[in-house]
Amino acid sequence: MARDAVDEILDQWRTARPDLDASPMGVLGRLSRATRIAERQQQVLFSEHGLQQSEFDLLATLRRAGGPRGMTAGALADAAMKTSGAITNRIDRLVAKDFVTRDVDPASRRTVLVALTPKGRRLIDRAVAEHIENERDILAGLSLRQQDQLAGLLRTLLVSLDDVGRG
Questions:
Q1: For the chain, which terminal residue's Cβ has fewer other Cβ atoms within 10 angstroms, N or C?
Q2: What is the pLDDT of residue 165?
Q3: Quick one: DSSP state of residue 9?
Q4: Which domain of life is it from (predicted)?
């Protein structure tokens, strides 16, 4: 079986501290390294569309969950698990790029709705299709069965960490 950089780290721990079972470092270290590598590859794609990952995430959230009226900034913050201040800054950038609008809800004058502009919708429709292909490429080293197994294992881990129904 091929060895990775984490194997070297685990070997070093076995030598330095043979009394410890460092195997959890193998799992979490690999998960962390894989995430960093995938995020770098994803950022290349987002940059091609003039976006940061956080901007892509908001546009994608509006596209999949916003409906024709859009979403409140609070609902966007909840969906992205970010503070309202962080969301406000991202919305400001997307408004400046003409990807989203921010308008008072006619049904409730105290509510502001954020919605995709036609330009924003075209962008996210292109970008999300390319993003899925990019993710497919990132996972190409695993068979479809292995991808399903990994997804199931990660779901079990996240549920055990109480990540139920959070975005």
A1: N
A2: 55
A3: H
A4: Bacteria
What is the domain partition of the chain in residue ranges? Answer: 5-157
Long-range contacts of 163-166, Cβ-Cβ distance < 8 Å, separation of 24 or more: 166/81
Assign domain 5-157 to a CATH class.
mainly alpha
**How far lies 20's CA from each of 10, 12, 16, 26, 155, in Å?**
10, 12, 9, 13, 28
Q: Is-contact 23 7, C-beta < 8 A? A: no
Report the pLDDT value the prediction gives residue 21, as an integer from 0 to 100: 96
Chunked in runs of 10, what are the mean pLDDT values of the chain (167 residues)? 92 97 96 96 95 93 86 83 79 95 83 93 97 97 97 94 65
